[in-house]
Design goal:
Elements: H1 2-29, E1 35-44, E2 48-49, E3 52-53, E4 60-69, E5 73-85, E6 89-104, E7 107-117, E8 128-139, E9 142-154, E10 160-172, E11 178-189, H2 193-196, E12 203-216, E13 219-228, E14 240-248
Antiparallel strand pairs: 1-4, 1-14, 2-3, 4-5, 5-6, 6-7, 7-8, 8-9, 9-10, 10-11, 11-12, 12-13, 13-14
InterPro entries: CHP02001
Pfam families: Gcw_chp (PF09694)
Protein name: TorF family putative porin
Length: 249
């Protein structure tokens, strides 16, 4: 009887030890997810698109979500409130997909297709497609990005096209949560700032300089001074100081 009890205890201890040993192994063997979901919501004092206000100089609510695969392919959507009109309604909804990845040490390429949708518009055709591509890397303490976007001639663009090239520069201030940024863009086509302001010049430059900082947790605050060349129209193409509060997840 004693032998049986000892055998039972030994068997129980063996089983418990095996279970305790096996459980972490199973957890360690679980493959990491190949899908990453990121997003953000923001409140901005003025929705400026390539220097031009799409919210008539008023505040706008924005937000988006992106689903990325480990291979670098991604899809997502982003939306913002805009100045209400019969053609565009009161909302911009962007749908996009593409691929981003490191092609050389410290050098990242991003390329895809973006579709601008204006679901509230009920007069004419406002939606249009725009392929894009960019390359980014580090130059000393600075992050540099150069990109291009091209919208071919489409009905919503008056059967005309538009080319946009730009460069961004971001420099983090050591030992602070502050990042200083600068942007310079050039438009050639139907979406040039002067044309949107009622002029005839189908080319133009937009620029900005500003800073952003992490406040706490997922919250960050950015402030930029934004300008465009050409006619200055209040609430459209006039220079403006824009502040944006963003929560990222």
């Amino acid at each position: 009887m004693l032998t049986s009890i000892r055998g039972l205890v030994a068997a129980s201890l063996f089983a418990a030890t095996a279970l305790a040993t096996a459980t972490p192994a199973l957890a360690d063997d679980e493959p990491a997810s190949e899908i990453t979901v990121t997003g953000n919501v923001a409140l901005t004092t003025d929705y400026r698109f390539r220097g031009v206000s799409l919210s008539a100089g008023d505040p706008a609510i924005q937000g988006g979500i992106t689903v990325t695969h480990a291979s670098g392919f991604y899809v997502g959507t982003w939306s913002s409130s805009i100045a209400s009109s019969d053609v565009y309604g009161g909302q911009e909804l962007d749908l996009f997909g593409g691929w981003s990845g490191e092609v050389a040490s410290g050098l990242t390429v991003d390329a895809g297709l973006l579709y601008y949708v204006y679901p509230g518009g009920h007069v004419g055709d406002a939606n249009y497609f725009e392929p894009y591509a960019s390359i980014a890397g580090a130059v000393g303490p600075a992050k540099v990005k150069v990109g291009v976007a091209y919208a071919w001639d489409q009905n919503s663009l008056g059967d005309d096209d538009n080319l946009y090239v730009y460069s961004n520069l971001d420099v983090g201030i050591p030992n602070t949560p502050l990042t200083v940024s600068a942007h310079l863009g050039y438009t050639d086509g139907v979406l040039a700032p002067a044309i949107l302001a009622g002029g005839t010049d189908d080319s133009g430059i937009d620029w900005s300089i500003g800073a952003s900082a992490t406040l706490f947790g997922p919250l960050s605050l950015g402030v930029s001074y934004i300008g465009v060349d050409g006619p200055s129209v209040d609430g459209l193409t006039d220079d403006a100081v824009v502040a944006t509060l963003t929560a990222s997840f």
